[in-house]
Write a structure and sequence with these properties.
Length: 303
């Protein structure tokens, strides 16, 4: 079987960029809150649906859809943490309690999406798959096929990574985020309002999830399980990168992105369904937990 390795590697970059956008938000909130928020999958789905409403329902440009979706889902993320998880933490909830609460919240949000569509038909939110009507130009460069959507995915991922690097290393709020993630007690003793820092991080994290959701939906389809289709590889990225480690997450996103796309070639060669590609992230995740539970954090300064 002839393999277009140029296309495979480029597809790996696109996949890695999508995972990176989503993983930035999850790794920051995971690092500060100390528990895996499984409702993050529904933040991704809400981003896709809100972007769909703005772009297709209201007929506004896609950049507007990204901004509105970022703000809308960011506020929802803040409210979820402020109203649920922070309250549970103050009442002595353990890691297991918070995990179960996040799963429950995810189920509620997932099923509220089509319910909201039933009450407000103009939203266009339903369980059956929907599709963005926006078209993206495609270009051929020799053996490589590129679309405008893929280029924007890569550009936004790089832009977010660079922006977050500057924020984390050059600004007071970024240094406060790093201090809170590293040692909450010391940060509190230093006068940092760890609750406010966590609120800001959850707002930003949910907003990044929304952006990833739009990119994913624009390339595939929109339905309430859009986020769940991505959440497991994203968790694999976060754990491989080292929980709460921003720079490790960047490296991990590209490792898993390339591994998935090369794995698709292997699966095809073996005559297996490419739907098994999700197992590649699981394999990497299990190996990481068995061999180096701290992931790539050992190679990067903690963000």
């Amino acid at each position: 079987m002839d393999v277009n390795w140029v296309q495979v590697l480029f597809n790996g970059v696109v996949t890695a960029s999508l995972y990176l956008i989503a993983a930035i938000g999850l790794t920051l909130t995971y690092g500060l809150s100390g528990f895996p928020n499984f409702a993050y999958a529904e933040f991704i789905a809400l981003g896709a649906f809100s972007g769909y409403f703005v772009a297709d329902g209201l007929g506004l440009p896609m950049p507007v859809a990204f901004v509105v979706s970022f703000l809308f889902v960011g506020v929802i993320g803040f409210l979820c943490y402020r109203g649920i998880f922070q309250t549970l933490s103050k009442r002595g909830a353990t890691l297991i309690h918070l995990m179960v609460a996040s799963i429950a919240l995810g189920l509620i949000l997932r099923h509220l999406i089509p319910v909201a569509g039933d009450f407000i038909p103009a939203l266009g939110w339903k369980w059956a798959p929907s599709y963005f009507t926006a078209s993206w130009d495609a270009f051929d460069f020799g053996p490589l096929r590129v679309t405008g959507l893929w280029l924007w995915t890569i550009f936004i991922a790089i832009s977010l990574a660079v922006t977050m690097h500057i924020v984390l290393t050059r600004t007071r709020i970024g240094k406060a985020i790093r201090a809170t993630a590293s040692n909450p007690e010391l940060a509190l003793a230093s006068g940092i309002s760890i609750y406010k820092i966590t609120w800001i991080t959850w707002f930003l994290g949910a907003g990044f999830a929304a952006v990833a959701g739009i990119f994913r939906a624009a390339d595939t389809q929109i339905w309430p399980m859009t986020g769940w289709e991505m959440i497991l590889p994203i968790f694999a990225v976060v754990i491989l990168g080292g929980i709460g480690n921003f720079y490790g997450a960047i490296a991990a996103a590209f490792i898993i992105g390339f591994a998935e796309n090369i794995g698709v070639v292997v699966l095809t060669t073996l005559g297996l369904s490419t739907s098994y590609r999700i197992g590649i992230a699981f394999i990497i995740l299990i190996i990481t937990l068995l061999v180096k539970p701290q992931g790539l954090a050992m190679f990067f300064r903690r963000s």
